[in-house]
């Protein structure tokens, strides 16, 4: 079923101005304005809807992430009216869902992190006013997820990711997209064992040194920020804090298909947009503030322009994937840690 939204054509009206936010504690206000769609744009939107509906019927979810047709259509765009259906298809979340489970999980005893989730949800609604309507559903979704996957270490990033999903998808659909997204890409980031995050952060820093040695030296040597400290706020939130909401949607379109290499590309793009401020900053605190929650006016004025920056980064996706396997083994040997904690344990309610 298509969602009833009409196409929203957005631009950022304010000019780029790389100056520090005047009040980092203030809520981040919307930075885009919607223009009335003309007949041509409405027809183009409708044609993209139909293409996606047709493609999702023709390409099984199990093959979607490797499909050249899917990747080609991703570049053409994903209409907001079918976006959560596309995400569900890429993650095969409907195929992996279990009827009645979500309702049963929501009735279980509250998890230990429940009150922290409440506080984080309230803070997230203040920082991102567009997340405010998701509060009740958000608490239910994370309560259910943490009951089902008790080996997860809760952090605020889960609240931001789940909250963003709920902006687009009905609650139960959002839950199963969240479950499959976590299983496919993110669960190791929320494990007491930090090996995967260390590996991915190291890969990002390698890419940063290759793309911009001057900025890499400033961040990693002169300011002395560690790789994990640099990447954790991005990778564990999927850039929900760092990017305007409409940019997050577009980044997720590609991330659900490409995985880690796309996160590295987006991180490099954020660094590029903050470059002048980074080179001028003097403290670790100010640098982290710039790169984890940049003023929206520092970004290119359109989503497509930002994605162009993302895709122009010098990153070889296949090499990243191969290096990831080698570096994970290397870090395990260096730290003499045992096998990573089991991440496929799931506790489903009894029928």
UniProtKB/TrEMBL annotation:
GO terms for molecular function: GTPase activator activity; small GTPase binding. Residues 8-22 have a biased composition (Polar residues). Gene3D superfamilies: putative rabgap domain of human tbc1 domain family member 14 like domains, Ypt/Rab-GAP domain of gyp1p, domain 3. Residues 1-45 are annotated as: Disordered. InterPro entries: Rab-GAP-TBC_dom (IPR000195), Rab-GAP_TBC_sf (IPR035969), Rab_GAP_TBC_domain (IPR050302). Residues 77-259 form the Rab-GAP TBC domain. Pfam families: RabGAP-TBC. This is Rab-GAP TBC domain-containing protein. It comes from Schizophyllum commune (strain H4-8 / FGSC 9210) (Split gill fungus). The lineage of its organism: Eukaryota, Fungi, Dikarya, Basidiomycota, Agaricomycotina.
């Amino acid at each position: 079923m298509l969602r009833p939204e009409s196409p929203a054509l957005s631009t950022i009206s304010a000019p780029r101005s790389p100056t520090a936010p005047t009040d980092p504690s203030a809520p981040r206000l919307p930075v885009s304005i919607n223009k009335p769609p003309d007949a041509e744009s409405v027809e183009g939107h409708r044609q993209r809807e139909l293409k996606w509906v047709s493609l999702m019927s023709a390409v099984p979810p199990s093959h979607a992430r490797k499909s050249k047709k899917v990747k080609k259509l991703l570049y053409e765009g994903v209409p907001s009216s079918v976006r959560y259906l596309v995400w569900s298809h890429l993650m095969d979340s409907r195929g992996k869902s279990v009827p009645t489970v979500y309702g049963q999980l929501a009735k279980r005893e509250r998890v230990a992190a429940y009150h922290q989730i409440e506080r984080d949800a309230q803070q997230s609604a203040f920082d991102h006013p567009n997340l405010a309507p998701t509060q009740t559903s958000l608490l239910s979704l994370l309560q259910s997820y943490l009951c089902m996957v008790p080996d997860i270490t809760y952090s605020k990033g889960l609240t931001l990711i789940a909250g963003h999903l709920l902006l687009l998808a009905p609650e139960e659909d959002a839950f199963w997209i969240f479950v499959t997204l976590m299983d496919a890409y993110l669960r190791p980031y929320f494990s007491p064992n930090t090996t995967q995050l260390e590996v991915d952060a190291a890969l990002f820093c390698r890419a940063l040194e290759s793309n911009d040695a001057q900025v890499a030296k400033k961040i990693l040597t002169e300011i002395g920020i560690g790789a994990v400290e640099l990447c954790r706020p991005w990778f564990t939130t999927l850039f929900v804090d760092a990017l305007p909401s409409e940019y997050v949607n577009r980044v997720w379109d590609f991330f659900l298909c490409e995985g880690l290499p796309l996160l590295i590309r987006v991180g490099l793009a954020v660094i590029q947009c903050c470059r002048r401020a980074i080179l001028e900053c003097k403290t670790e605190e100010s640098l982290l503030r710039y790169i984890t929650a940049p003023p929206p006016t520092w970004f290119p004025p359109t989503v497509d322009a930002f994605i162009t920056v993302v895709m122009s980064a010098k990153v070889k996706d296949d090499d990243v994937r191969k290096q990831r396997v080698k570096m994970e083994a290397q870090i395990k040997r260096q730290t003499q840690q045992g096998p990573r904690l089991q991440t496929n344990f799931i506790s489903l309610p009894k029928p």
